[in-house]
Design goal:
Blueprint (H helix, E strand, L loop, with lengths): L1 H4 L3 H14 L3 H66 L4 H8 L3 H20 L1
Helix pairs in contact: 3-5
Length: 127
Amino acid sequence: MLLEKSKNKEELIDSIGIIIKSSDNEEILNKLVLIIKKLLSNCVKEKTDRKEENMSTLYYRILDENKEILKTGEKKGEVKIQKRIVKKMIEKKLKDEIIIEITGIDKEELEKIKEETYNDIFTKKRK
């Protein structure tokens, strides 16, 4: 009865202390031990469940981030390869329309790559 009337943890602890001090009855003490074990196991279970949930959430967040990093890396790799191909097409003096049609790049990007290519060629000749 004392335990059920407890309104917070402090009152519960005080009530348990009173029962232990005043009781010579082993049956009451055994019941008290069972109640304490149940309370503790529930607290531990809740914390464990939350920790597992947090770890699981963290695991999936890391997986998602890794997938995004891989996608970004793949995209950057594709862009580099496409740029290398366009540079070779420019060096072979293919027409702009053919390069655009085959690679799918726009005119502005082609002009940037052309400028880089001509700068690279000029720099190589100077060395």
